[in-house]
Amino acid sequence: MLLNKKIEKMASYYYSIKKLGSYNYNIWFSKTKQIINSRGYTDINANVLHIHMGNDPIEVYRHKITTGDLTEDEYQMKVVHSLQRLHNEMINYKPEKSGLFLKWIERVGGKNKKNTMSPKGLYLYGAVGGGKTMLMDLFYDCCKIEYKQRVHFNSFMLDVHAKIHEVKKNVKRDYSTTKLQPFDPILPVAEIIAQKAWLLCFDEFQVTDVADAMILKRLFTQLFDNGVVVVATSNRPPDDLYKNGLQRGNFVPFIQILKDHCQIVCLNSGVDYRMRDGTDRQGTYFIIGRDPDNSVDKIFKYLCSRENDIVRPKTLSIKGRNVTFKRICGQVIDATFEELCDRPLGASDYLEISQAFHTVIIRDVPKLNMRLKSQARRFITLIDTLYDNKIRLVISAAAPHNKLFVPDNDTEYTDEKRMLMDDLAISHGSDNYKSNIFTGEEELFAFDRTVSRLSEMQTKEYWEQWEQYR
């Protein structure tokens, strides 16, 4: 009797949340036949690689070497062979699906059926600029399965948290009892994702947020159990993910789950192709000097002449908040570092900016050190988001891009640091004090990627890409 009551309640609940599959914020929930444009996601019909060869990654890679689009790289070729293995296994792959409600019935009856025959994915890590994202995108374009999604990992987690919030709002509580009614929203969220994407390709797999770290084990366990195959790029090996993070002990089990379901491959040729390709073509869009405003004004004036609008303030509405910028002209924003990085903006805000504008000007970027740790973290997130969405970038700065971040031995206690230590009951010298929220280790590591991306974002080739993503 009790079991029947539970089944009736959960049946009503699961059917009520099916509408989340079309939740607008989660645009990675769609078939590959739909072109997804402004968030840096790619699709089979929005193919930026323009592949005219067969569907094999090896064949396409070799063709690109022959045409001069790529330089032959033995380290990349080893990765391509691993991607070819996965591509072959994905050709006829289709995970077993039984629907949300039936899956819950199986769990209640202790018969939770897992997709044990899923192909093993691939986790590709290595130094910045080595071609990890390029190779993953090449594989993604070659893989012709019915449901697939390519997304920046940070954007994916934003969507996951938004969907968790939406699921919780739909939970019907039993107010006739005072007993604790535990509910884990990860299960329905993971199953909705799995229904819409059999292959998930994550760019820049990194974990810096404790809220992300605490749910990854449960989330990915459910995704893998539902037959989802994961391909990811990262600058860190799995064992270094969330290194020195708060409560990392709760995160560590996820690492083994990732290793069990993904082949771990290192790409480290010692070459940063972004830096090499941009060496002789930088300077036009990254401006330094005593009076950079004059040069930036000229660029902004030229960009405005190509827009059907006037220069004016504009307010963006982001999750119920209004964020105002003073100088907007059409799809060009002329902002200061203070406007973009001093204010408490986050990844969702920068994602909205990437949707609204095709060109972003950032004036007065200072040298960044640990005293500006919060601003440095926002700047890194901003550049990652703009790069992933191929947004054109103009910067005026106090130093060249490779000298913007200045690590220092910050041993002083700022008021902000003292308050955080008090809130977390952390003493100086303890293990938790060595967490990256105090040392800035994660920012130091991530800034190498930022420097590499800033270099590429100054090239003519990068500036010509944005039209293909619109």
UniProtKB/TrEMBL annotation:
<keyword id="KW-0547">Nucleotide-binding</keyword>
<dbReference type="Pfam" id="PF03969">
    <property type="entry name" value="AFG1_ATPase"/>
</dbReference>
<dbReference type="GO" id="GO:0005739">
    <property type="term" value="C:mitochondrion"/>
</dbReference>
<dbReference type="InterPro" id="IPR005654">
    <property type="entry name" value="ATPase_AFG1-like"/>
</dbReference>
<dbReference type="GO" id="GO:0016887">
    <property type="term" value="F:ATP hydrolysis activity"/>
</dbReference>
<protein>
    <recommendedName>
        <fullName>ATPase N2B</fullName>
    </recommendedName>
</protein>
<keyword id="KW-0067">ATP-binding</keyword>
<comment type="similarity">
    <text>Belongs to the AFG1 ATPase family.</text>
</comment>
<dbReference type="InterPro" id="IPR027417">
    <property type="entry name" value="P-loop_NTPase"/>
</dbReference>
<dbReference type="GO" id="GO:0005524">
    <property type="term" value="F:ATP binding"/>
</dbReference>
